[in-house]
Amino acid sequence: MKKLIAGIALFGTFALASAQTITFDKTTFDYGSIKPSSDGTRFFTVTNTGDKPLIISNVKPSCGCTTPEFSQDPIMPGKSAKIKVGYNTALTGGFNKMIEVFSNDPANSRSVIYIKGNVDANAPEAKVLTPAEQKEAAKAEKKAAKVAKKAAAK
Question: How far apart are CA 112 and CA 115, in angstroms?
Fold first, then answer.
């Protein structure tokens, strides 16, 4: 009987230890200094570093000047998804905005990410990336997501 109870307790411990885990490639995106009415869209990469499907149920900005877009499709273990965040760059001046991300991660059901920057008419023109530079940036982003995944697994 003692072995049966110990076995059930041990199984319960393993059942609780396995779960979905939300990990971000970065928690703050710094726009730097940008011109008014420039592209205010940025992306956060969310990775499920757990072993069960992760579901993002809601993404809530701190104000109406920030518009998030996300998918409620489950993120399978080891896979990633993007949260698209848009900022209204018609508003000049500095900004530091909080975005709440709600998920089924039992340890982090509410995570917070931030965007910050400065909308300034005297900001330098944004450099347009060539296709080769865009490809290199995408590679670097994938590598950063893998590093974050490995770090979260430790």
Answer: 10
